[in-house]
Structure formats: structure tokens, C-alpha cells
Design a protein that fits this description.
This protein has 95 residues and is mostly helical. It is built from four helices and no strands. It has two domains: 54 residues; 40 residues. The protein is flat.
Length: 95
């Protein structure tokens, strides 16, 4: 026998609320730890590990990834996406 849609939606809603509450508690705990500077040891270890991997090639690769998140690239990508979608829509109207 299948469950009614309302029951499934209720379980989904309750699960979503539980996940959101857990994420909020985790974020609050992490923010408190950072404010008390209790994450400094972890930060130093991560920074040292990253610096050991440093090289000119890695720097170039990271600059490319950084550019992919820049406003210039995202605006250009958005405009290109809009143009492609408008073109596709125009083709569909012609058919």
C-alpha cells in the first residue's frame, strides 16, 4: 500500500527542518570556536600543508580557478547563457 502524498510531504518537510537546524547548530559552534581563536592550530596546519604544495604551476592553476569566480567571468557567462537560451527559444518558434 502506498502512503498518501501529504504524509510523504510531511516527512520531507520534517527532515528538511532537522537538516537545517543541524546545519545552523554546526555553523554556530564553528563561529564560536573561531571567535575564541580555538581553530588557530588547525588553520596553521592547513596553511603549512598548502604552502608545501606551492609551485608556479599550482599558482597559475589557482589563478584560473579564482578567475572563474570573478564578477567579470560570471557576467560574461550569464550573458552568453541568456543569448543561447533566447536563440534556442527562437529556433523552437520557427519549427
Amino acid at each position: 500500500m502506498t502512503k498518501p502524498k501529504k504524509v510523504e510531504l510531511g516527512f520531507f518537510l520534517i527532515g528538511s527542518i532537522v537538516v537545517a537546524a543541524a546545519a545552523l547548530l554546526l555553523f554556530g559552534w564553528l563561529a564560536e570556536e573561531m571567535l575564541e581563536s580555538e581553530t588557530q592550530t588547525f588553520d596553521d596546519a592547513v596553511r603549512a600543508a598548502i604552502h608545501r604544495l606551492a609551485s608556479p604551476a599550482m599558482t597559475s592553476a589557482m589563478q584560473v580557478f579564482s578567475f572563474l569566480g570573478s564578477g567579470t567571468f560570471l557576467v560574461a557567462l550569464s550573458l552568453l547563457t541568456i543569448a543561447i537560451l533566447l536563440y534556442i527559444h527562437r529556433l523552437e518558434r520557427l519549427i
